[in-house]
């Protein structure tokens, strides 16, 4: 199963809607609750990063029995230093964005923690691509 959403920069009215749709689908197909939780964190943070930092992009989810793949591709300023961007607390979000409650610099670190694998590539003044795989938990609770 495959889902795809377009995400518009600065569209705070719809921010989080794609992640919410992905959550519903994962619950419907009966993914493990922990897999749903982790995939939704990844999808939400990736979606919000497009809204806050990029011009426009698309968020896709590929749902397999054993894993969820989340892909976020955008056109925007790109990330000049990926390892700096991955650091907890690092954010370039301006003041008016912080006043809305974003810009703690925790999105990318949380994606890394929640995903089984993640890959982040970017080209300055072109855009950014994030892919993450969340393995489905199949045993235990
Ligand atoms: N899609 C993107 N395009 C351009 N820059 C990005 C993108 N995603 C992240 N960044 C850069 O990486 C930094 C860190 O991202 P991260 O998601 O960890 O924090 P944040 O978005 O600033 O705050 P938070 O996610 O906690 O609300 C951002 O401040 C921004 O400079
Ligand atoms: Mg973020």
From TrEMBL:
Coiled-coil intervals, chain numbering: none
One GO MF term attached to the UniProt entry: kinase activity
Domain of life per record: Bacteria
Alphabetized UniProt keyword annotations: Kinase, Transferase
Protein name per the record: Anti-sigma regulatory factor (Ser/Thr protein kinase)
Pfam families: HATPase_c
Gene3D superfamilies linked: Histidine kinase-like ATPase, C-terminal domain
UniProt domain Histidine kinase/HSP90-like ATPase: residue ranges: 41-134
Naturally occurring in which organism (per UniProt): Desulfoscipio gibsoniae DSM 7213
Family annotation (InterPro entries): HATPase_C_sf, HATPase_dom
């Amino acid at each position: 199963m495959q889902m795809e959403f377009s995400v518009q920069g600065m569209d705070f009215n719809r921010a989080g809607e794609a992640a919410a749709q992905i959550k519903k689908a994962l619950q419907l197909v009966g993914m493990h609750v922990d897999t749903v939780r982790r995939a939704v964190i990844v999808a939400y943070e990736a979606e919000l990063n497009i809204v806050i930092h990029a011009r426009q992009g698309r968020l896709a989810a590929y749902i397999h029995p054993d894993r969820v793949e989340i892909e976020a591709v955008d056109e925007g300023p790109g990330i000049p230093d990926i390892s700096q961007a991955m650091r907890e607390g690092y954010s370039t979000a301006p003041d008016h964005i912080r006043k809305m409650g974003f810009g703690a610099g925790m999105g990318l670190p949380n994606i890394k923690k929640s995903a089984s694998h993640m890959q982040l590539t970017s080209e300055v003044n072109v855009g950014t691509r994030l892919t993450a795989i969340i393995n489905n938990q199949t045993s235990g609770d």
